[in-house]
Amino acid sequence: MLLPWSKQSTLAISNHGIAFKHADGQSQLLTDSQFTLANVAPLNTDQLAEILIAHQSSLKHQQMQVRLSNTLIRYLVLPWQNEVFAKNDWQSIAQHEFRKQYGAAADAWKVSVSFGNYGQTIIAAAMDESLFAQLEASAKTLSFTITSIQPLLMTLLNTTAEPQRDWTLIAEPERIMLCRAYKSEWQQIAIDSPPTGLEYQHAEQLINRNLLQVATNEQPSKVNNYVSAALHKVWKHTDNKLQKTVLRSNSTQAHALWMAELPLNKKSPNINLDFAENTQLNNTAWTWGLLAIALLAMTLLYAQYQVTSKKINQQIELSENKTQSEVAAKHHLDASPAMQDKLKLAQLTQQQLDLPWMQMLKALETVKTANPHIAILSISPNKNRAEIKLTGQTSDFSDLTNFLDALRTNSSFNDAVLVSQHLEDDQAKLLYVFEVNLGWRV
Fold first, then answer.
1. Does the bond joining 42 to the residue before it have cis omega, within 30 degrees of 0?
2. Looking at the whole model, is its pTM more than 0.70?
3. CA distance 178 to 172
4. Distance (Å, rounded) from C-alpha 227 to C-alpha 235?
């Protein structure tokens, strides 16, 4: 798990180019305009290895997020099965479905699955195992670290905090992908491979064909279009009421470079199709670490207050010693702007310390101890709104409901509202990741 302040570089790979964006923000295209990645089975990864070796000096010691064009990925939407819970089982189901559609070639693919809410359909993605192996080998040889390997679909849909409610169309050179959703649940992913220059026309045809396949009441209010900057000249920027262009480009740019410059998502993703193995921190240690940091912050604030208060008292005593009466002392204080500023600082600091920080943290620690299966990931108090925002995770939904009940019955809190929850995979099990708004009796 990367710390929030960790800086990452981005490596973008498409059929027509490879680009790199350094952690400092500089971007460069690693291939020329004639480059074509031989996307045939098995995928020829020697081209990729040669390009990475040629730019070893730029890649060395980088924390790298790899983004793959949708042309290098296959997708499926799987129906929910109540009796299946383990991530490995869902990956096996996805592998079997890929093999049914694509034949024996699917045996050489690496599969990733992403979970939504309980009972909802699941999206699966597959990439060539040879490409994955080449990326890992290059990272080891060229001394860079891969933090994630994700398809373009994942990158784009995680740029917003909102779940997938409407249809989404992703347009790349020679590849159009339409993602259908209904009531925040995945329905189907449709693919088209138009000739160069005809991407816009094929996109309209793909949308119209799919509109005919669904009932009127299930049709979307809009279709969010993510269009590569490489298609700027051929894409018609019309005022279509149904289609809404997201991340509009004002000029033509190489597709791989456009992919590399897409913003990084540092929050919990709406969909997680990361092919790289993620190292998870120990949940218990992370929770207690957060509490320790909060206690340390309170201690430092109190120490700062003591120092400030001592200095102010010394100034006040010195001022009083120089006056002959209470009237003269009051006049001296009123006439000193510096003294007034120090008194205001003392009052503000006192107000901060009057808040029951220790009482709140102790109460939260008590509830956490009584619910050991809950892992608290972050604590964000808001003194102005008398509110605390908690994020956490657990493997059992009943543990979450028990945790909410314990918070609501604790005298230090007046309410606990479940703002959001979704399923994520952690190796061989599913985790409920949730966010709670908690009333604080200040």
1. yes
2. no
3. 12
4. 8
User: Could you identify the residue written with the tokens 């997680």?
Assistant: 272
Angle at 16 between CA 11 and CA 17, to 5 degrees: 30
Q: Are 280 and 55 in contact (CB under 8 A)?
A: no
Q: What is the edge-to-edge ordering of all strands in the sheet holding 9-14?
A: 27-29, 17-21, 9-14, 63-68, 145-151
Q: Is 337 exposed, middle or buried (0-12, 13-18, 19+ CB in 10 A)?
A: exposed
Q: Could you please report the per-residue DSSP string of 104-167?
A: GGGGGEEEEEE--STTS-EEEEEEEHHHHHHHHHHHHHHT-EEEEEEEHHHHHHTSSSS---SE
DSSP 281: P
CB neighbourhood size of 351 (10 A):
10
Task: Return the residue matching tokens 């299930």.
Answer: 218
- The pLDDT, as a whole number, for residue 77 is 96
Give me the residue label for tokens 């092919």: 275
Q: Which residues make Cβ contacts (< 8 Å) with residue 59, sequence separation at least 6?
A: 9, 11, 20, 52, 142, 143, 144
Tell me how far CA of residue 356 lies from CA of 10, 178, 306, 345, 361, in angstroms.
44, 52, 17, 20, 9
For residue 333, pLDDT over 50 is answered with: no
CA 170 to chain centre: 19
Helices and strands in the chain, H and E counts: 12, 17
pLDDT in tens, 171-215: 999 999 999 999 888 999 999 999 999 999 999 999 999 999 999
Query: CB–CB of 437/131 below 8 Å?
Result: no
Tokens coding 420: 């959001």
Are 413 and 407 contacting, i.e. CB atoms less than 8 angstroms apart? yes
> How is residue 322 annotated by DSSP?
T
The band of 398, judged by pLDDT with boundaries at 50, 70 and 90, is confident
pLDDT digits (tens, 9 = 90+) for 246-300: 887 888 999 999 999 998 876 667 788 999 864 333 344 445 556 666 667 677 7
What pLDDT score was predicted for residue 284? 44
Tell which residue, 424, 414, 393, 381, has the closest CA to residue 287: 393
Amino acid at 62: Q
Q: For 279-312, give one letter per residue: b (16+ CB within 10 A) or e.
A: eeeebeeebeeebeebeeebeeeeeebeeeeeeb
d(CA 129, CA 101): 18
H or E element at residue 29: strand 27-29
Q: Give the β-pairing of 145-151 and 63-68.
A: parallel
